[in-house]
Amino acid sequence: MSIQTIDADGIDAMAQRFRANFINSLSGYKSANLVGTCNEHKHTNLAIVSSVVHIGANPPLMGMIMRPHTVIRDTLGNIKQTGFFTLNALPVSHYASGHQTSARYDPAVSEFEEAGFTPLWKSDFAAPFVAESPLRIALKLEDILPIPTNNTELVIGRIQQVQIEPSVITADGTVDIAALELAAITGLDTYHQARPVAKMAYAKPDSAPKPLQLFNADQ
After folding, report:
1. pTM, to two decimals
2. Does 13 map to a domain?
């Protein structure tokens, strides 16, 4: 494989769509999540995002980047209006339906219905979950931090509840993501199913890397 350097001028010279695909794919595999929201009248909205990140465990916070307001963003508008949203991991079996939620539907149209997902309401939470998801997280809006460089916003939510099958939570608290058979995304439109390689021991300066568990099928 021959490595070449693409400098800033080369990136700027790329065609707009080519550059978007190129830059978006550089960050590698990302989790595929469906963001469930509703407005004050309970009209539902569902949108796929690949920008969800862990912010902290104490307090339990998650964040996601929302794109610039060059068009109407129903998801962000609903979050600002109600203060609540859900993150629903996308099962790989539903990747096509999940991708469909990225279509620019009219605000009066619910992506739940158009993409074939079932809204799941809980009496103690004000935003809809996705019934087909095996990992559902309820969040209350904690903060929205503007990023002036490109007019995006970091939406930070505090976890209120997690809905998950207890058997996929390991003895040390780690969620066995592979067991849930979730989709991952590269770029804007390519879906994958990830497989674990190894679980490693805590790294120390005076110790060699030590695998606690290997997941190679040939071991």
Report:
1. 0.91
2. no
